[in-house]
């Protein structure tokens, strides 16, 4: 799941925050 977001630059930080929430 995370691997998919890793491909996006910039969105990685936003997606990470969502996962941590």
Radius of gyration: 7 Å
Helix percentage: over 70%
Major sheet size, sense and barrel closure: none
Beta-strand content estimate: under 5%
Terminal Cα span: 16 Å
Shape: elongated
Structural class assignment: mainly alpha
Mean pLDDT value: 71
Work out the number of β strands.
Answer: 0
Spell the H/E element sequence. Answer: HH
User: Low-confidence spans: pLDDT under 50, at least 5 residues?
Assistant: none
Number of helices: 2
What would you note in describing this structure?
With 21 residues, this protein is mainly alpha-helical. The protein is 71% helix and 0% strand. The protein contains two helices and no strands.
Topology:
Elements: H1 2-6, H2 11-20
Summarize the structure.
The protein is mostly helical. The chain is 71% helix and 0% strand. The mean pLDDT is 71.
Descriptive labels:
21 residues; mainly alpha; 2 helices
